[in-house]
Amino acid sequence: MKLVYPAKAGGGGEGKAVVFKSKLKWVGLFGLVLSAFSLFTHFLLARYSDGFAASEYKSSITIFSWRPIFENVDFSASRALHRRLWAPVKDLESIHPYADHRGNNYVAPASNGFVFVRIRGGFHEIRNSICDVVVIARLLNATLVIPEIQSTTSSKGISTEFKSFAYLYSEDQFIAALVDDIKIVKTLPNDLKGARRKKEIPSFKVPNSASPYFYLHHVLPVLHKHSVVELVVPDGGCLQAQLPQNLEEYQKLRCRVAYNALRFRQEVQELGTKILYRIRASGRPFIAYDPGMTRDALAYHGCAELFQDVHTELIQHKRAWMIKRGIVKGNLTVDSAERRLNGLCPLMPEEIGMLLRAYGYSWDTIIYLSGGEVFGGQKKLIPLHSMFENVVDRTSLTLPWELTKMYGREEPNLVDKRPKPRLSPPLKDNNKPSGPGWENSGPRPRPLPPPPPRAKYPYNIEGWWGWVAESDNEPESTVMELRTNAHKLLWEAIDYMVCVEADVFVPGFDRDGRGNPNFASLVMGHRLYRSPASRTFRIDRKEVTRHLEENRDHIYQANHTWIASLRKHLKKHLSDGLVEELTRSKPLSFLSFPFPECSCSSSDQVKVNTSSSLHDVLLRNMQRCPSWMDSGPGDKGAEDDGGEDDDSDPPAATILFQQSGDSNEAVAEMGNKEETQMDDQEELEGGEKR
Length: 690
Hints:
Strand content: 5-15%
Radius of gyration: 32 Å
Mean pLDDT: 79
Largest sheet: 6 strands, parallel
Shape: globular
Distance between the termini: 117 Å
Structural class: alpha/beta
Number of helices: 24
């Protein structure tokens, strides 16, 4: 018998409920889409709006941590103050880069063999060494194998997509740019590769700044005999900076290598270009500042007492290590204050901020902070951030995935072979009384046992500085630290691009941990070659420190005389500082001062505009540029420079600490009263004109 079940009551109502729920889903989806569109429109309006009626400040909304804040929306380049702060140095406007190539009919003679090079060191040491080994290969008439950079080998935990030299520079560009000068190959022939694995290739550990005589009389005979030699460059720079007059062509070859052949690989180049675009998106010029405050440099020059606590101990430990290995000739403990007064220590970020504010740069000036390491941490940068609102670096202008893309595919889990510290379990107290008699003896005074020793856990000694509390010997670098050191080369490559393109460059220190020119010196040399007239402050630290000490008690309420004297000194060294650099930096590193070998003069204007010392020492025998490089008939040197001083500069009493556009009438009145009492005001203002 077939059973027939009655239909459930309310079946139609259930169907209506399903339809109703479906409609609610569509309404909710429509609301989400509308909200997303509204939010997107809001961000677009906030990003591209011209300004806000309720505020005199302008801030662009970006996806980065930097939020630029400017006092004036209109930043006119025609103002006299703008010309005084950002305009090119007119004494050097007629100087142009000119490292002429060989003619197309040049044919290199038969090669004497292969030169294989291993390079150690940091960014500036690597760059100096590569330029030197190219000149050495040309001097020996040898085929150069692409140099191997020890800091970027696969054993350092970096991406396997790049091989040593290619981790930082473009191999194809390097070979193509020097095809008319030397022959370059990427690897050794197969038979020589086997000999290298068996360590049968003769090797030379090249001394720093070796002479051409060393290579012609020691290396060349071995090259003739074995057809291959290996050069190990440990300290950066394997050829003396100043060559004889008959080898001037090799100096120009150095320039062609540094400024034409050494191009960063595509990923680094693209990210550096993006950062430059993001800085210039506001339409304002910017300053690049390199502190130069590294642990090695501070230890070598004896500047430990300028820091406190663990930083002083770390610097002293490094200095003791240098003394033990003969790098430093001197005592472990030195008077850091005296060395600072003699200009042998870096200028602190606070002091650089004072100089820039005294020179006339406003609080909303964009400052790009360069350098992979600022010893002392963010604490040393706080005064600079308090003086300038728009202080940025690569971390505030990039996204994490952009840096990851530049690094390439890396192993996420590195195995650290260094033994990790063991936990120290609490010690048992074996001297504690025991027994039933002791427990039931009643109340009486009992001496407290000594507390157990504190257990040492890994987080107590983590970080690159944690070993100071555990041992007198600095531990070996872990694989992760080696990877970070390789990343620092890429960071410095980006900083190098930004600093070369900056409108103004300010070095805090120009010496490294061996007393040689450092990263900032390379930047100044590149700017001198590429655009000699760009504003590069070659600061005389001894003289500037004297100025700062004279007004130390009233540094934030400086008078007009002090500010005018400091401005005059800084302006003078924009051009006359080249004469000092000729004797200080060029004997140690040619790339820090590639002048005048790699430059030419387009006209006789230099005889009219430049100071006598600059003309007599550097420009008198400079070669004349080809006719196609000559500028127009207009004589820029005849223009009146009297308009460079801006009468709208803030009063001397407010120039260092006024942080906003709000007018402070009381302080301004005090500053105006101070300026009216200056007897030599006209003379000082005239001294600021160029």
